[in-house]
Amino acid sequence: MPQRLVVTGASGYIGARLVERARRRGCEVVALGSRPAATDIPSIVWRLGERPSLAAFAGATAVIHLAHDWASDRANGTGPGNANLSGAEALADAAREAGAPRLVFASTTSSRPEALNAYGKIKFAIEERLRALSHGDGCIICARIGLVYGGPERAMCGLMSKLAGLPVLPMIGLDREVQPIHLDEVCDGLLALALDPPTVRQTVVLAGPVPMTFGNWLRVLRRARHGRRLGLIPVPIAFALMACDLSKAIPFVPTVERERVIGLAGAAPMASAADLAGLPPSSFAARMPFGRRAGSEIFRALAPALAMATIYFPGRYSANKASLRYGDDGARIHIHGGITDGFDALAHTMRRRLARIWRKLGAFALPGAALATAGTDAHLGGVFPLGVAAPHGTSRLGELNGAPGLHIVDGAVLPSIPSTFTTLTIMANADRIGRHLAGIG
Predict the structure, then answer these.
(1) Element of type H or E holding 62
(2) Any alpha helices (H) in 35-152, and if so which ranges?
(3) N vs C: which end of the chain shows fewer Cβ within 10 Å?
(4) Can the peptide bond before residue 281 be classed as cis, meaning omega within 30 degrees of 0?
(5) How far apart are the C-alpha atoms of 192 and 188, rounded to whole Å?
């Protein structure tokens, strides 16, 4: 019996491709709301904000919630009248009551309580509301999606393509880091979460694992589509917002919504490599010496026999320096990061030795495999978790229960690691504990 998916926003940019790829995999798809053009999938009349009929979820394997009401963001902001907030909760409640085992909510990497635009704020508020539901643990997964490209030129992808077609482009946020991800990878990730999630996680990031600046992304688009360079002129956000208003009044000029510009101004990357590693085909295909489509197909064929190796080198190979310098404007801390002179040779030797060991075990390294950039770190959470009474647990001040007087202040005291950067959280916690021990907190 085919797996049955209930999809909201099925006629949208991501939704239409998701329906196509789900049906190609043999899934039965039902559109809750409008369905994609030129398809014959069943659809059920529904508007975001309404409570759907329980019959809509009969036999559903999962619900994928893609729909979003931009007009409600403009009219209500993050207030209780926003249909996106009430609609997501009503949808989750109805799906649970009808017996649907899982709901995947399409969020964004802009999801933050301090997001500059209403879209990022409301997506974060929806995530919080869904997590607070009594059945949210393990039944609801929030997928934070990066800057999507590929497929038909619609939504943000269509806007970026039009802007990249201009020979000279005044733009804000050129130095902001974005995480482009292909439309097909997003759809495959959402389907994996809906049909066969790798782990029980409430938040997963579907975004390119290696951030790049927005300016470089526009240049790549220009070069790929037109074979020419793009001239970029940085402009202040006030000027950009004025241009957004003017774009609506000038014919033959791409219309740019203020919400999208404000969101770009506050863009910040989220860690995604660990999440993508558990979903097909993601960064594995990108590391193979083939095109994305061929690499993805090869990955699917090899996936049952793949293993991922993580190698940690001793800290003595780091060449990091911190110095305090005084000037006319006061004291400044200067930090320089690097590696020792012999590290490259060591890394090369290590790869050769590992390759020989793996061959003896009957394993072979993928062509094009590479070591992570030197300085890449991992925060191991839960080793000495705060608030746990066992000997390996720590007090709220990081004092190890099994060794009184020893305070731990790094990522090991975090009970778990979320799908976002933890650097500032770790720093703030260390500062809190340090101030208390110094008697200045």
Answers:
(1) strand 62-65
(2) 70-76, 83-98, 118-132
(3) N
(4) yes
(5) 6
**Largest Cα–Cα distance in the chain?**
75
Is the pLDDT at 312 greater than 70? The verdict is yes
**Percent of the chain at pLDDT above 90?**
25
Domains assigned to the chain: 4-279 (3.40.50.720), 315-356 (no CATH), 378-441 (no CATH)
Angle between helices 118-132 and 258-265 (to 10 degrees): 80
Residues 6+ apart with CB under 8 A from 79: none
What's residue 271's pLDDT? 61
Q: How far apart, in whole angstroms, are the C-alpha atoms of residue 191 and residue 39?
A: 19
Q: What Å distances lie between residue 359 and 132, 303, 350, 365, CA to CA?
A: 49, 18, 14, 9
Q: Check if the beta carbon of residue 232 is closer than 8 Å to that of residue 172.
A: no
Tokens of 26: 């043999």
Structure tokens at 63: 């619900």
- 341-379, pLDDT tens digit by residue? 888 788 888 888 888 888 888 887 765 555 555 555 555
Where residue 259 falls among pLDDT bands split at 50, 70, 90?
low
Judging by DSSP bridges, how do beta strands 103-108 and 62-65 pair with one another? parallel
Q: Which residues of 372-382 are buried (b: 16+ CB within 10 A; e: fewer)?
A: eebeeeebebe
Identify which of 314-318, 400-404, 422-426 has the greatest average pLDDT.
400-404
Q: How far apart are CA 207 and CA 148, in angstroms?
A: 8
Q: Of 173, 170, 154, which Cα lies nearest the Cα of 162?
A: 154
Q: What is the token pair recorded at 97?
A: 């009551």
Distance CA 340, CA 319 (A): 5
Q: Are 28 and 197 in contact (CB under 8 A)?
A: no
Strand partners for 29? 5
Least trusted range by pLDDT, from 20-29, 332-341, 353-362, 397-406: 332-341
- Give the H or E element holding residue 310: none
Half-sphere exposure of residue 225: CA atoms within 13 angstroms, side-chain side? 20
Please give the model's pTM, rounded to 2 decimal places: 0.61
**Residue type at 44?**
I
User: Does residue 64 have a pLDDT over 70?
Assistant: yes
d(CA 232, CA 217): 11
